[in-house]
């Protein structure tokens, strides 16, 4: 490795080996959501600090997405807000995942039914939509009840007979059913 490379340049080169996606800001809402999720998972796996995450992810923004971020960043800095990874994600969601989209996903979560899905498919959909209902994150009993109530009747009856105390137990029982 070239000794003249800075630590950030080395980090950036390493990051680029994972082929992280770029975002122009013209993609549809689900593509924007996928972009953020992919980066979030990558950063979590690599255990990058907030500062590194911000520096690296901003480079993956292009065109109108980059312009929008820099305008947002400027407003946050004027208000004295420290830009952490959580702040970035919150602002990103505000800009690229409209409130109506988030509300629709929350409604989909609350009304989720297993239907023709396998239990694994239902668990995956439940988990995917779960982040759109932050108020449910506070109470595991509510989470578990929503999960159980969405199961098909024959699985619901089997699980409800020995009502578990935790969501993980309900998921395990549903998979065994």
Descriptive account of the structure:
The chain has helices at residues 7-16, 29-46, 50-59, 63-78, 85-96, 99-110, 119-130, 140-149, 153-161, 167-176. By secondary structure, it is mainly alpha-helical.
- β-strand number: 0
Count up the domains: 2
Total of helices: 10
Shape assignment: elongated
SS content category? mainly alpha
Q: β content, as a range?
A: under 5%
Oligomeric nature of the chains: single chain
Helix content range of the residues, please?
A: 55-70%
Q: What letter string, H or E per element, gives the SSE order?
A: HHHHHHHHHH
Q: Note the gap between the termini.
A: 54 Å
The description of the largest β-sheet is: none
Low-confidence stretches: none
Brief sketch in words of this structure:
The chain has 177 residues and is mostly helical. The chain has helices spanning 7-16, 29-46, 50-59, 63-78, 85-96, 99-110, 119-130, 140-149, 153-161, 167-176.
Describe the SSE topology.
Elements: H1 7-16, H2 29-46, H3 50-59, H4 63-78, H5 85-96, H6 99-110, H7 119-130, H8 140-149, H9 153-161, H10 167-176
Helix pairs in contact: 2-5, 6-7, 8-10
Task: Write a concise keyword list for the protein shown above.
177 residues; mainly alpha; 2 domains; elongated
């Amino acid at each position: 490795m070239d000794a003249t490379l800075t630590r950030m340049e080395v980090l950036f080169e390493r990051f680029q080996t994972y082929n992280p996606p770029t975002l122009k800001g013209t993609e549809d809402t689900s593509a924007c959501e996928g972009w953020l999720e992919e980066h979030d998972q990558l950063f979590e796996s690599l255990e990058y600090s907030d500062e590194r995450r911000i520096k690296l992810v901003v480079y993956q923004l292009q065109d109108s997405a980059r312009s929008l971020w820099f305008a947002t960043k400027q407003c946050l800095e004027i208000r004295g807000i420290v830009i952490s990874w959580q702040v970035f994600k919150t602002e990103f969601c505000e800009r690229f995942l409209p409130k109506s989209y988030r509300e629709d996903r929350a409604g989909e979560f609350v009304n989720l039914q297993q239907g023709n899905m396998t239990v694994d498919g239902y668990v995956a959909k439940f988990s995917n939509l779960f982040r759109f209902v932050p108020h449910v994150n506070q109470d595991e009993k509510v989470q578990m009840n929503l999960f159980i109530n969405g199961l098909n009747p024959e699985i619901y009856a089997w699980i409800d007979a020995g009502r578990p105390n935790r969501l993980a137990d309900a998921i395990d029982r549903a998979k065994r059913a």
